[in-house]
Every structure is written in C-alpha cells, then in structure tokens.
Amino acid sequence: MNLLEARNVTKIYGALTALNGVDLVVSDNQFHGLIGPNGSGKSTLLKCIAGAEMPDAGSVEFLGKDIGHAPPAERARAGMSIKFQIASVLPELSVYDNILLAVQAHDSLAGLLFSRSRRALDKQVARTLEQFRLSTRKGDLAGVLSHGEQQWLEIAMALAGNPKLLLLDEPTAGMSGQERRATGELLAPIKQVCSLLIVEHDLDFIKDICDSLTVLDQGQVVASGPTVQVQNSDKVREAYLSHA
C-alpha cells in the first residue's frame, strides 16, 4: 500500500519555480530518501508534504486522502510527524521532560486529568530515552546536549505520537562521522512501525538506510527507484557533478 503519494507537485515563488511537476511515492514500512544538490527543491517538497507550504499545483495524498491544502495539525492527527533541520527542543527543560511533554501532547485532556500522570508515562519515556541513547542524560537540560544528541532528542519527540510517517529534514547536518553512523543505527528499528521520508545531502549516509531514493535537481525528478539502481544512475552523477 502507498502511504504517501505526491503527484505533479509544483511550487512557484515569483520568478523561481522551486518545484516543477514532482512525483514521489512512499510505501508502508519503507525508508525513502529524497536527495539532490543544494537548491534542488528537497526541503520545499518536504514542506509541501508537511503543510508548512501549500503547493500551487498537483496533489498530496496521505492514506488515500487528499491533504494538499490541509493545515499541519490535521496532517499530524492523521499520523504524520516532522522534524526540520534546526533542532527545536526546549533548552531550559530536562531531556526527560522534553520527551514527557511530547508524549503528553498526543494524549487526551481526560487522560491527562485522570490517569496519564507523569508516573503513568514514566515507562514509556524511559523506553524512549534508552532507544535513543539518552538515558544517562535524562536529568540534564536539553540545552547542554551536544548537537547530535539534540537531534536524537527531537527525533524521539517526533516519534512520541506513534506516527505512520516520519519526515526528517537533513537530520545529520553538522554531525560528526560517528554521530551520523549512530543516527542510522537509531533510525533502523523504527521501520517496523513507521515509514520514513528523509531529506539528505549526504548520499553516503542515506544509501545505507533507505530502500528507495528520489533525486531532485532544479525542482524536477532526475531519478526515482530502488537505492542501488538510483545511486548508480548516470543522470544522478551528472546532477551532483554539475553542482560540484
């Protein structure tokens, strides 16, 4: 089943056509990479899918429903979660409380009032901390975490509502090689419960975790398909080399 289908998506800013008839499909339990040189339209497409931008033409369907002009909150309720490139954790709260608030944000008011206390959610928060290698930092303020740890914390928060599709915008930007490898290891287990659409500039990182890739250049699809097939495409090499 196709979880997400973007068809003929077009986005224009004045004289600039950022996206020109882009198609993209993400299936259930699939990691799909969106790559391309700087300025190719990757982040713009992700924003059109998440609702941060509205496409000027084309359609975006999620779980068979047209959401192309739905507000971000409606998309979130349907099971879509996004983490943009710049971390937006709450720096003055502890790592534990950042995750706790993310979990509580998806609970009902009645649940919060009557049964979903901090104590009731402790096991869920603890599991998440362990999953993202943050257990030893749970009492620390989020603002003192390393760049990589802040990225992991925000990914953990984005997964708190058990989304069907997680959107990530260059989550490894600014990370060391060791942190990038660890990020790939942390993301791998979520495929059992959640699909992933990840925007990346680092082809070496993304080819190791993604089942399929879509490559953009100058707002158009250059190639799309299984990772091995796409990474060996002459068109893809040409797109990257032309911007080198």
Map the helices and strands.
Blueprint: E1 2-13, E2 16-27, E3 31-35, H1 42-50, E4 57-62, E5 65-66, H2 72-78, E6 80-83, H3 95-104, H4 109-114, H5 118-131, H6 147-158, E7 165-169, H7 177-187, E8 195-200, H8 203-206, E9 212-217, E10 220-226, H9 227-231, H10 234-241
Parallel strand pairs: 3-8, 3-9, 6-7, 7-8
Antiparallel strand pairs: 1-2, 1-4, 4-5, 9-10
Helix pairs in contact: 3-5, 3-6
Task: Explain what the structure shows.
The protein has 244 residues and is an alpha/beta fold. The chain folds into two domains: 2-87 and 162-241, Rossmann fold (3-Layer(aba) Sandwich), CATH 3.40.50.300; 90-144. Helices cover 35% and strands 27% of the residues. The protein contains ten helices and ten strands. The strands form two sheets. It has a six-stranded mixed β-sheet with strand order 6-7-8-3-9-10, sandwiched between helices. It has a four-stranded antiparallel β-sheet with strand order 2-1-4-5, covered by helices on one side. A hairpin with a 2-residue loop joins strand 4 (57-62) and strand 5 (65-66). Helix 3 (95-104) packs across helix 5 and helix 3 (95-104) runs parallel beside helix 6 (147-158). The protein is globular and about 50 Å long.
